Amino acid sequence: MPELPEVETSRRGIDPHICGQRIARSVVRQSQLRWPVSPQIISLMPGQTVLSSSRRGKYILIETTAGHIIIHLGMSGSVRILDSGAPAGKHDHVDIVFSNGVMLRYTDPRRFGCMLWSDAIEHHPLLVSLGPEPLSDAFDTQYLYQRSRSRKTPIKSFIMDSHVVVGVGNIYANEALFMAGIRPLADAGSVSRIRMARLVVCIRQVIAHAISVGGTTLRDFVGGDGKPGYFKQSLLVYGRGGEPCKQCGGVLQEVRLSARSTVFCKRCQR
Fold it and tell me: Is 141-264 CATH 3.40.50.920?
């Protein structure tokens, strides 16, 4: 599943090609995604100009003169910039064609993503309850420590909760907890303020580095420019269960936590 760095990489890939461009038409070939494609994508888009693109959690937000397009990539979705004459494939569900001949194409083999419309983005139900961005000032030691008090939830599940902090998906939670020396199964409420401060720093570092190298290529994902991400080359624990720890040489343990692969080092993480 594309996580925050992959989504941000996609947004940055499409941004220079769509901002300031006028939309000529929209084409919806398959409207039944996770939720039906909003009819405004067709009815309101022609003639509108794209003002900006941004991201909230794993949602790409495209601001137009009439409102916002909300895009989620689901399990295997992608957005690409193509020539408007590019032939459509089986899983190419939505095209937004611009007057300069460029096209934004939404592709989603599993159809778990979405393309929705909002004229009041700050009140949209998918966005209103999300936690702070991990690279924002709002995500700090005091915030995470206070939110974790008395919580019996495993710390890995806690930081993966989008109501606590957005975008810390499975890959990056594994990596940040290893860097912070915290065992994923520890109760969130048992983590001290000092260790929580370290975790905040490590989450920031992991997310920022992943964005800088274009995310992690796993199965279907490539960025908005069609290029893969390279964070996979620097993974310390994720996907390495049974292999030697790069820090102490011990064997990395792999367990299932909330149906997700969780890898950690018994020596380095407590």
Answer: no
